[in-house]
Structures are given as C-alpha cells and as structure tokens.
Amino acid sequence: MGNLPNCPKCNSEYTYEDGSIFVCPECAHEWGVQAENENNEDINVIKDANGNVLQDGDSVTIIKDLKVKGASSSIKIGTKVKNIRLVPDASDGHNIDCKIDGFGAMSLKSEFVKKI
C-alpha cells in the first residue's frame, strides 16, 4: 500500500491518493500533498481565536463565558490570564495550562482566548 498519511480530520488510516490529493473514504476529507507538508511544519503552533501565535508566558483574555465542571460559577468573559503554558500534544484540545484567580489550575482551549 505504501506510506500514506492518516486523515488530518478524523485520523483514519484508510486514506488513498487520487492524483495530487489524498482522500479519506470515512469522512470524505480531501487535502493536497503540499497541505500535508504545511501541516507537519505547523503542528506545534498554537494560535488564539484571532489567529495570533501564542507562546509560553503570554497573557491572554477569555472571550466567552466558560462553565467549569464542579464549580458553582463560570469564568467570565474578559478574565485576564497571565503566564500561560502551552501543551502542544494535548489530545482533548485543551492546549493551554494556566492558573486563574478564584479557580486555581486550569486547562483551556486556545479557541476561547485572545492574546493581550
């Protein structure tokens, strides 16, 4: 069969090559050979909701009220979070570790924050 990449959308191993693109038969996602190379280069880049690249130690602001399991209140929009730590290989999508006043240690998704 060869050395074909897994689908970047659903991680299926049953991909096939159709001309200059790869196709996933399970989710019908199509991507090009160049896109595969670009994805490998950008795999460790974490961006905020506006597309700004985040780095360890950055300060961010919450852009949406976030409910917290086990807590009686939620994290309000506009809450500032200082000194974040990035977790690029988080499997559940929570790729920011931080401490939030009143809540303690927390993991956040980068799609719900914007860089200050």
From TrEMBL:
SUPFAM superfamilies: Prokaryotic SH3-related domain (SSF82057), Zinc beta-ribbon (SSF57783). Gene3D superfamilies: 2.20.25.10, SH3 Domains. Belongs to the YjdM family. Residues 46-115 form the Protein YjdM C-terminal domain. This is Protein YjdM. It comes from Clostridium sulfidigenes. Residues 4-31 form the Protein YjdM N-terminal domain. Pfam families: YjdM, Zn_Ribbon_YjdM. It comes from the Bacteria.
